[in-house]
Every structure is written in C-alpha cells, then in structure tokens.
C-alpha cells in the first residue's frame, strides 16, 4: 500500500483573487509503506544536522514552511541563501534518491473566476471556490496513477481479458487544518470520474503537519510547482531537479 501525502500551495481560502498566487496546487507524494520508516529516519537525521535538534524541540522550528525556507522568512530570516539551499537540497534528495513519485494537479484561479462570472459551464456551478474541481482532478490523477501501476504488473492476457487485479492501493494522508476535507473523497467516489477508482481507499487520514514528514515534503514540492507555473520561462532549478529525477511525474490541469 502507498501512503499518498497531500501537499498544498496557493490555497487562499474563500478569497480566489491573489495576483501573487494565481494557481492553486495539490501534490500527492507516494511513499510505499515499506519505505515510510526510512524516509522518516532520514528526515529526522537531516533536521538534527541542520538545526541541532529534531523539529519542535528547542532551537528548531516546529515545521519547515516552504515559503519561509525559500525566501528566508520567519525562523530562517537569519540564514544565508547558501545555507537554506543546502537544507532544500537535502530535503529534495530524500525523494530523488528513491525516485518517489509525485502526482500534481492545479487550477488557474483567474480562469475559474472568469468562467464562473460568465456562467456557461454547468460543471462549475457545483463549486464556489477552485478547491472543488481541483480536488476532483487530484483524486482522478491519483486513481489513474494507481491504474498504471496495477496494469504494469499484469500479463498481456490479463489486460486483454479486461479484469484488472488491484495489487496497489493508496491511502490519502492530508493535513489537519488545510483545505482537504473528508467529504471530498465520498463526493469523488460517487462521481462519474470516481466510480471506477478501485485503488483508492475510501477514506482520508488526517494528521498534524508537525508530525508528518511526508506532508512537509509534499508541501515543499507543491511550492516549487506553483512557482514554476507562475513563470515557467524563468530558471527553476529545484523544480527541474525533481522533474528530471523522476519525482514530479505527471501534472494535470483543471480544464475550464
């Protein structure tokens, strides 16, 4: 079974107009249950190396916030760029070494707002904010990835027979207090897109970000994906490194 940790970036609640964050992003970091202990151990080791203590203890932040780390804010305001870069590289290295797959979905909030204003898209009448269609696209992307994994272990005869053996499942792990809600899963599974999502466990596990290494890593990826979406013509070495090393695998847009 995979634990799929949800990362978020560009989430502005009910306010959907923010020129500095035109995109809303979900990432799903797939960590197989057999690797979860080693991932946690490696992350805790790098925290001790950089902070001198585990997260939440004296001298260390309670959580690594991507915007603070990248821009040198909050806890990291006294850190020079090279020192922050080293911590970012160490965090991303956990995923790169394992080629831990990340599935991404995003929505352009301006396109959503414009389409809602026109009112000619019946699909969008269901949603007051971009989070609804984005969650649907995210769950669909996770389900598609699981289908590909399951098909990769099947013989040609099994594929031609049309009966898929479900050997890989995914438990969605979301953060308490973030935008993901438990009702989203049941709504998706009742929808046309979700009716065949047999690899998804039909519940969401909610955890505190402070106690979830996977959530913090997924948030870091989501932040760099959002920065790339905002200006893809600029250099984005962190994003490029994740994509070139088979971490960022698929990016699904919400089509409006």
What percent of residues are in strands?
Answer: 15-25%
Major sheet characteristics: 6 strands, mixed
**C-alpha-based Rg, rounded:** 19 Å
Mean pLDDT: 90
Which architecture does the CATH hierarchy give at level 2? 2-Layer Sandwich
Helix content: 40-55%
Number of DSSP helices?
A: 9
Listing every helix as H and every strand as E from the N terminus to the C terminus, the arrangement reads EEHHHEHHHEHEHHE
The number of E-state strands comes to 6
* Alpha-beta content class: alpha/beta
Low-pLDDT regions:
none
In angstroms, what separates the terminal alpha carbons? 33 Å
Could you say how many structural domains there are in total? 1
Write the layout of secondary structure elements.
Blueprint: E1 2-9, E2 23-32, H1 36-51, H2 66-71, H3 81-98, E3 102-108, H4 109-118, H5 131-152, H6 156-161, E4 170-175, H7 182-190, E5 200-207, H8 213-230, H9 237-244, E6 248-253
Helix pairs in contact: 1-3
Account of the protein in words:
It is a single chain. The chain has helices at 36-51, 66-71, 81-98, 109-118, 131-152, 156-161, 182-190, 213-230, 237-244, and strands at residues 2-9, 23-32, 102-108, 170-175, 200-207, 248-253. With 256 residues, it is of the alpha/beta class. The protein has a single domain, classed as 2-Layer Sandwich (Nucleotidyltransferase, domain 5), CATH 3.30.420.10. The protein has a 6-stranded mixed beta sheet with strand order 5-4-1-2-3-6, with helices on both faces. The longest helix has 22 residues, at 131-152. It is globular, with a radius of gyration of 19 Å. The two termini are 33 Å apart.
